[in-house]
């Protein structure tokens, strides 16, 4: 077994908690593989696991947390309520179901997965998350795939802002305006699909920067996320790639590198626009 890499730094959250800046993302990780890959990630040095009810692997993530041998406070576990369960009572039930699958005593972060404005239930869902947090069953609460106007409505109607907004974010879609909005309100921006589902890795510019720094194109992009201040949760299916993705804290992109990556902004999404749901 290789020696673990240094753990990612922890970023403070507005509620007084903190979150490891780089975690292991479990979207499209089959349940049969999830526990083993989580343990590979933990062995490599990860301390942050990001899943969701929709991913179908909460049970296995819980198994890995218990099997890791680490104290519960050393691992940061995130899950999300699926859009079909938006609404106050349904969100409360969905959280209970998630916790039965995890078989953990609490979560570190629970998110609304999508706002689904067409059903107009995300404010009620947010009220349910506030209750769950106030009951001590989750440490922090946030949202996923929320535009600025969705967050403004949460704050206007409940007085509470999320501590994290997890959105699609990569060099083609850097979400500059949303990141600035989040930052001015003490909200951490977290990037899903940080490599544009791997598609951005075919960009010649990233190959050039990888050669310049003696790193892989994926490490260049993940380092870009880190230097922007994003929380980032790459997914990988092989232990060597899991380890490679965490090994991005020993080099730095310079101002010219960052400007070059900024030129890749096209606004292209790999997923849905949250307002279209």
What's the helix and strand layout?
Elements: E1 10-12, E2 18-20, E3 24-25, H1 31-44, E4 48-50, H2 58-67, E5 76-81, H3 88-102, E6 107-112, H4 122-134, E7 138-144, H5 148-158, E8 164-168, H6 176-184, E9 188-192, H7 204-213, H8 217-228, E10 231-232, H9 239-246, H10 255-262
Parallel strand pairs: 3-4, 4-5, 5-6, 6-7, 7-8, 8-9, 9-10
Antiparallel strand pairs: 1-2
Major beta-sheet overview? 8 strands, parallel
Level of helix content? 25-40%
Indicate the overall shape: globular
Order of helices and strands: EEEHEHEHEHEHEHEHHEHH
Strand order of the largest sheet: 3-4-5-6-7-8-9-10
Q: Look at the structure and give the mean pLDDT.
A: 97
CATH architecture: Alpha-Beta Barrel
Q: What's the helix count? A: 10
Number of domains: 1
Q: What's the number of extended β-strand segments? A: 10
CATH structural fold name? TIM Barrel
What is the rounded Rg?
Answer: 18 Å
Distance between the termini: 45 Å
Helix vs. strand class: alpha/beta
Task: Using the coordinates above, name the CATH class.
Answer: Alpha Beta
* Fraction in beta strands: 15-25%
Oligomeric form of this entry? single chain
Instruction: List the uncertain runs.
Output: none
State the CATH superfamily name: NADP-dependent oxidoreductase domain
Keywords: NADP, Oxidoreductase
Site (Lowers pKa of active site Tyr): 80
Enzyme class: oxidoreductase
InterPro entries: AKR, Aldo/ket_reductase_CS, NAD(P)_OxRdtase_dom_sf, NADP_OxRdtase_dom
